[in-house]
Amino acid sequence: MNGASVFVTLAVLAGVFGDQLTVLRSPQYVNFRSGKWPLAGEKIPDLVALTMGFSVREDLDWPGLAAGSLFQRPRANALIAVRGIDSLDLPSNVSSYPLENTVPFTLDSVANSIHTLFAESTPVVLQLAPSEERLYMMGMANTVFEDLPVTLQQIRTRLSQEGSVLPSLPLNSLSRNNEADLLFLSEIQVLHDISALLMRHKHLAKDQAPDLFSLELAGMEELARRYGTDSPQFQDAREILVAALQKFADDVFGVYGSNAVVEVVTVKAFETPLTRKSRSILEAKQIELARRYGTDSPQFQDAREILVAALQKFADDVFGVYGSNAVVEVVTVKAFETPLTRKSRSILEAKQIVSF
Questions:
Q1: Which of these three, 232, 267, 302, is where a domain ends?
Q2: In terms of DSSP bridges, do strands 76-83 and 260-267 run parallel, antiparallel, or are they unpaired?
Q3: 47 and 130, same structural domain?
Q4: 296 Cβ partners below 8 Å, 6+ apart?
Q5: For the chain (length 356 residues), average pLDDT per consecutive 10?
Q6: What's the pTM value of the predicted model, to 2 decimals?
């Protein structure tokens, strides 16, 4: 549990006056200046890295962030992406900046910095997009968030269980029987559950390694497509979203003892579709077997036997289907030299190649 890393990222797509970056919470030693300096959308990962005290390849020529402390770094950073919303009634005392050329971005570079600089720790990285059922977890995230509902079906089931947010929400024109409404409400449930799990595992905030969470929400975009931005459903959802974001920010900031940055990026529409590979929760749990039980454990040995049998059957099936005109290879790697992100690796990077 020591050295756990958690980084929280909140991006809401479409700001109060167009695309915007809004800083809901930040420690006093992370100094965001008052002003309306535009920030290029592709520089958001660099900005996040700098707030965490990491270096970036190119200097960020942006006056909105002052030089930070050399001796203090936030223990967490939060950024949520909510697509399709063009105004949010966020507090007037927060710092907001216009975004230019808002293109799809990921926080892979920040996650890599965490893994590289805190290699002896067990980092927590959680990146989640419920609408696309896209999930990526590493380290302690596999333990703390293993029961977090991640598919739409799981989240919708969660809405009918104890701890559901539905009884506490002013639904008004929203209906739990409509698909677009359910997607939005499911994402509010995810925000609630992540906050609840963080508050239950406050020990994560006591180590020195920073923490990473990235959420991408599309519920507002679906509501706009279904009902229109002037509809009662869209307006009711906007009020619910603002309250949920503020509570999420307060919860994260509190858990980390005022040592967290919580950002909201509002973007009405990305200029190009966001596509990226992700690791399923099943794959993440498989990787965690060795870390949780050890390579000499019965669990690891049993899993290895099952895997060998499954690979052999898969190879036989493929070879048979293609009339003995197929090559089936298995690459075994004990550990990559750098943290594995969603970027694909070539077969040449493998430590061993086995052909059936």
A1: 267
A2: parallel
A3: yes
A4: none
A5: 51 56 94 93 94 91 87 91 81 88 88 85 79 71 79 85 93 92 92 93 84 91 94 96 96 94 91 48 48 68 80 84 86 58 32 39
A6: 0.72
